[in-house]
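Friendly challenge for the regulars: who can give me the structure tokens for this chain first? No prize, just bragging rights.
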Amino acid sequence: MKRDLGRPSDACGTERVARIVKDVLASLAAGVFVMCLLPVLSSAQEIGPKPPAGPETLRQCASIVSLDGRLVMDQWARAGECARPVRTRVTDRFLGFTCLENTPHSSACRSFAPPPGSAEFDTSRFFRCVDMAATDTDAGIVVSRMKVWAAPSKECDWTRSVEVPVMEVDFQTGEVCAGGLCMFADRLSVVGKVRLRRLIGKAFRDFGIGMTMQARSR
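First reply, four minutes later:
Bragging rights claimed.
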């Protein structure tokens, strides 16, 4: 009797080879699927919605300086849109305060000690225009607001005041303003308070208004 010991061994070997081939084919198929899927994903990313662009960088516009050099207005806007500034900073170099407006009707101000040499920015050294909001009462003239700016000629062009930063005092609220941005006058430095009082006193004397009426109007 002869026994064929090689056949069972051949059969087992054939099964192993078949399994290996099957695994290899499966791997190849998966690889082809991934390779085919990548271009689809790339195309989907290209045609899909793009992420929103970041905020546009603001550019500083040309500074606006009052004739006496006292008030400096710096503004920032998008490229080519300086007529519509997004951010505004105004500095009063005589009284010593600066205000920054990042959003409309919302500003932050701080005072600082006027540096040496800042006395040259005293508006009273120039021909100046003074606009007062005054009411004649039984007790006398009551001033509620005063606006002062230096004029290039010895004439007051009232429309000019809207084109350049001007200094204002609101006696009703106790605020001092530059370029329309205001802070409380009691936050000024000691030097700033003294200069403000002298400026107001000179303007009142020029108009023949007593300082007592100034105190009453606050």
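The radius of gyration is 39 Å. The CA atoms of residues 57 and 78 lie 7 Å apart. Your move, everyone else.
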